[in-house]
Amino acid sequence: MHNNPQETERLISDPVPGITAEPHDDNLRYFKVSIEGPEQSPYEKGIFQLELYLPDDYPMEAPKVRFLTKIYHPNIDRLGRICLDILKTNWSPALQIRTVLLSVQALLASPNPNDPLANDVAEDWIKNEEGAKNTAREWTLLYAKKE
Asked: pLDDT averaged over the chain?
């Protein structure tokens, strides 16, 4: 299976608010993604850079998505890997790239420390949610500041 040109075209012509995804010039299966932190979240003043790669078996296999911007979040580890069910066990070929990106954006709005990928961050989040959110805000200003 190969990248669906209509899907790529729709990402560009009908963008999701707060999300941009552009295919790389020399590799149309590799996307540069930026996601604005959702309002009312500790990430709201940031723009986060991600990479999205469509494996050979896409859409039978989930895209690979990774944060390039450093982020303090219980479901995103320091390598930028994301703990999100639709990227693993709940992937369906019916899902589209935009659905995946919306789900990542939703994860920023509602972190789940009970299903962590970054255990230390999750522990902070559970013990002192306000403190963890403050750290997330600080990291957002440090690493994901809007230009």
From this structure: 92
